[in-house]
């Protein structure tokens, strides 16, 4: 099955995470067409500024930090953990 455009953007982040962290550590980066459109201190600002030029659903906003913590979520419910 072919990956969606947004999955490709996330793959770009994963493939370049180490070098992106060197430049944008702690920032929310906007990725479209496997390019960095901007870096922001706040996630909402990143979305609002990008929406001035690009349609929703055509880019991703990713917290740029080392490791998997920036893109991993853990859910706890009763005795079961989903990660």
Detailed description of the structure:
By secondary structure, the protein is an alpha+beta fold. The protein has one domain (5-82). It is built from two helices and five strands, in the order αββαβββ. The protein has helices at residues 5-24, 43-51, and strands spanning 28-32, 35-40, 60-63, 75-77, 80-82. The protein has a three-stranded antiparallel sheet with strand order 2-1-3. A two-stranded antiparallel ribbon has the order 4-5. The protein is globular. The two termini are 24 Å apart. The mean pLDDT is 87.
**Oligomeric composition of the shown chains:** single chain
Helical content (DSSP H or I, runs of 4+)? 25-40%
Total DSSP E strands: 5
Mean pLDDT: 87
Structural class: alpha+beta
Which stretches are low in confidence, meaning pLDDT under 50 for 5 or more residues running?
none
| CA radius of gyration | 14 Å
**N→C terminal distance:** 24 Å
* Global geometry: globular
The biggest beta sheet, please?
3 strands, antiparallel
Strand order of the largest sheet: 2-1-3
Strand content: 25-35%
What descriptive keywords fit this protein?
3-stranded antiparallel sheet, 35% helix, 2 helices, 83 residues, globular, two-stranded antiparallel sheet, alpha+beta, single chain
Write a brief caption for the model.
The chain has 83 residues and is of the alpha+beta class. It contains two helices and five strands, in the order H-E-E-H-E-E-E.
């Amino acid at each position: 099955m072919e990956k969606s455009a947004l999955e490709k953007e996330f793959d770009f982040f994963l493939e370049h995470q180490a070098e992106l962290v060197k430049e944008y550590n702690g920032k929310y980066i906007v990725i479209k067409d496997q390019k960095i459109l901007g870096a922001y201190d706040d996630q909402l600002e990143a979305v609002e500024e990008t929406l001035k030029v690009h349609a929703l659903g055509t880019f991703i906003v990713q917290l740029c930090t080392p490791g998997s913590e920036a893109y991993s979520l853990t859910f706890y419910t009763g005795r079961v953990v989903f990660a």
